[in-house]
Design brief:
Znf_C2H2_sf; two-stranded antiparallel ribbon; 7 helices; zinc ion binding; mainly alpha; metal-binding; single chain
Length: 153
Amino acid sequence: MPRGSNMKIKYRTRDLDQIYEDKQPENINRRIEEATKIDEDKPALGQNYCLPCDKYFCEEKALQAHLKQKPHKRRLKALETEPHSQQIADWAAGVGPRKRKREETPTRSDKIVLEDPQHSTVRVGPRKGREMHPLDLEQMDTVHEEQSYLAVD
């Protein structure tokens, strides 16, 4: 067994969803009190603690240096969004209850009229035989001539 596999377990930190729950206003004070409780087994008796990264530091200077580093900033950015949950996965799979109404999308029989008068209407339908004429034929010819002229140079 490779040595790295033991290191993952030895230095395991809390997952993003657990830390996200800890950062909620009703839980943050309780979590900070638990983390900074005096413990002889932790560095600096557990007084220098970074909540987002779930790390203890041996001195205040090391903690302040950590707060300016990129891994800490990445962790903060990852914690800005709500983490993945099983309820969201069930909703996406169509198993759970619908929390929000789906936006109405045009069906295959609907027509979408473009605002530009040079464009014709576009029928939304199956891929084969779909009518899409964004430019009239004269404009298409001039576009092809310009492209071939540019390709020659």
